Amino acid sequence: MNVFSRQRTQQGGFSLIELMISLTLGLILSSAVVQVMISNNSTERLNRSIASAQENGRFIIARLRNDLVMTGRYDLLRPELNKDVDIVVEGAFVHNNPIPVVGDFSNGLTKGVIEGAGTASDTLMVALQAPQDCRGATHGYVDEEFMVVNEYFLEGTSLKCRGFDGRVLRGLKVAVDDDKAYSLLDDVVSFQVQYGVTDNLASQDNSARPVKFIEADLLGAAKAAGSLVVAIRIALLLKADSDVLISPVSKFKLLNEDPIQPSEERLYKQFETTITLRNSKNFARSRNI
């Protein structure tokens, strides 16, 4: 009995200091684990935000390129072409005005490309022969092609397109379909456009090369001098679909516009592309100067 009593007396627990050290080390380790988890979560959200912006950018560039590459197309020999109007005159209009400016349409005097004031977004308008407009509307034609006029513009932060029957805009026909706009992509902060034009008629240059890129407000004078639009340069600023906060927000310079400073502390991505209008280039090469 005495031996057992001595053994129990000699046994002891942790001291207060040891417990405090253990608790402190445990708190430090727990805090480190929490910080790693928070960092991993923030990194994952940032990666998702970047991937979302990249995906949206690739989508809208591909969509616009697919829509715009056929600008200026007009084939008199296509059997699908509706011939309710003088197609020779209509073909000449499309070839000479693939990018309509304000005043080109007798029944749509305000329709045409528009240069946004300051850093405001631009409005793009194109003409071509097609079976439907950018929204998929056929404007009453059945399995036929006609003169399509598509308009692209920014409304709020939504990039939209609106399609017209060019014959209605020229005062040759009564509208059948409405002209409601269709949203292509949301979270667009800025949409800017420049137009690559050939040299004027007096230069005797028939190469169809874009000698310079100009804004919409200069396009009317260039066309009057005999220049043709053979390329379109587009720039977009997109906001990532995420709640990731980025501070400070960088400034972005789209084409030759003044730098844009977004107001929200979000992730933004800038995208640019140049689209060659092959139909307009072919027409420019075929002109007798």
TrEMBL record:
PROSITE patterns: PROKAR_NTER_METHYL
Protein name stated in the entry: Prepilin-type cleavage/methylation-like protein
Record keyword Transmembrane helix present: yes
Species name: Paraglaciecola psychrophila 170
Keywords assigned by UniProt, alphabetized: Membrane, Transmembrane, Transmembrane helix
Membrane spanning residue stretches: 12-38
Pfam families: N_methyl, PilW
Keyword Zinc found: no
InterPro entries membership: N_methyl_site, PilW
Biological processes, Gene Ontology terms: type IV pilus assembly
